[in-house]
Fold this protein.
Amino acid sequence: AYGVEAASQCYFGKSATKLTLPESAMIAGVLRSPGNYSPYLEPEAAKQRRDLVLQLMAEQGFITQEERTAAAAAGPVKTVGLKSGRDVQAPYFIEYVKALITTQQGADAVYRGGLTVRTTLDAKMQKAAEQAIAGTLNRDGDPSAALVALDAKTGEILAMVGGRDFTSQQFNVAVQGRRQPGSAFKPFVLVTALEQGISPEAPFACGPMTLKVPGSPDWSVTGASGGRTGTMRLREATEDSVNSVFAQLVLKVGADKTVAVADEMGIQTSITPNPAIALGGLEEGVSPLEMAAAYGTLANGGTAISPFGIRQVTGESGDELVVAKPASAAAVDPAVAYLATDILRGVISKGTGTAAAIGRPAAGKTGTTQE
């Protein structure tokens, strides 16, 4: 939206003449960079910007200090979301693209420049993605959800869902959310081990155990399901997601080496290298987009491709302003990528991920976590 009245309707669902002081300050704060200060995309940044506007208004005598304090104490400004009945396809993806272009070209070009934007979105896949989430998490109290589908060979974002309902939640979990990946992080430990020459048939003790960690307290981890003890091959431990095996493995290959592999494969978040990462216990958390890109490296034979959603941007006169040039790099030895993918196929065919079997060859890894 552009223009104060349009922004008022978009953010708060009412006329600008009926805006409260904190609502007015938020709109004033958004003007400088709608992508960076949007209450939909960056709610915390929008609040900080609003509070700055209130401070400046008080300093310049437009409001009293008491009014400024009361307005700032109101907490985050609540937006109305999209108007009921408004049909917008892929709203999370649209806002993601809009924010990128605003950063690159400026707000004035985005909202008034007559730009033509060609994206990578596949409408059929996007519809299927939205239906998959809406059809599964459709009860009050169900958790939020996010989904990203990439073309592993090109890096194109084909589908993106950032939450259950854009009307009530504009925060894009697919891109902005930093969540604990749980056991979905184990493939990075697996790839590190394979790169170091550890065989998928190597045996490991699979029962519950307490491990010594240099410079840290002892580490107690659970074992294989069903109370199984003895030894288990690494391949089977991956299929069954056995914590004790991967705890031993990360201590063997090194948490720092695992972080380096994850970074090369596509994890952009700076991860603290401690052994708990083997079980998904990250201090920082990662986004679904990062995880999809990193897994895509295996699907692409070890070559990492930076994900992108914008193919081309042209100006009003037809001049080309942006054209996609996704970066690619050899991240994993092709033989290691093939072997890791083969092991991860077992997760879906007979391991913890059988519910994801879709009647065609597929590889993946399950992961759960809770606060």
